[in-house]
Write a structure and sequence with these properties.
about 170 residues; mainly alpha; 9 helices; about 5% strand
């Protein structure tokens, strides 16, 4: 985990020792307006979460632990005293239970999909379990279909999105 974090901030060649990774990251982020985002944080060990907390303490960088609801459970451990250093630093807990239409529009725009019918279909997909991830998988597959369909001019349309959704095993969106 820490090696990956080092590489993300452009640090390579550090010995495979957690303390060395942590020190290198601290030196890189100190005196910068940095934000560290740990996505899928529910998969991090308590030691990894605590190592990132240490980086935050030394650099005052912003820190976001993002993931499913288990992230909060892991951070607080039921307010176990052993985890006080983690949960006492939480500045804000934000739960986003489902994507918004704006979230969908931003992802769709990145795929050059701007039609209302397409965005409505994508929003319905984004409301299913897996949310934006499964919606993006549907867009990836629809893009493959669009490239293969010469008469579509490479454009993703609602029909291609629906076909992609079905191919991924998606159910009815009604």
């Amino acid at each position: 985990f820490m090696k990956s974090l080092c590489e993300t901030v452009g640090i390579y060649g550090v010995k495979n020792v957690v303390a060395d990774y942590q020190t290198a990251i601290i030196h890189r982020l100190k005196n910068r307006d940095a934000l560290v985002v740990i996505d899928e944080a529910q998969h991090c060990s308590i030691n990894a979460l605590d190592a990132v907390r240490g980086i935050h303490d030394k650099t005052q960088c912003g820190l976001v632990y993002s993931g499913n609801t288990e992230v909060w459970t892991r951070l607080t451990g039921g307010r176990a005293p052993a985890l006080a250093q983690l949960y006492s630093r939480v500045g804000m807990k934000m739960v986003l239970p489902r994507p918004t239409r704006d979230d969908v529009a931003i992802v769709a725009k990145a795929w050059n999909v701007e039609g209302k019918a397409e965005q409505e279909l994508l929003f319905k997909i984004a409301l299913t379990p897996g949310h934006l991830r499964v919606m993006t998988k549907a867009l990836q597959r629809a893009a493959i279909y669009a490239r293969a369909a010469k008469d579509q001019g490479g454009k993703i349309n609602a029909g291609l999105i629906a076909n992609a959704w079905r191919a991924l095993g998606g159910g009815s969106l009604e």
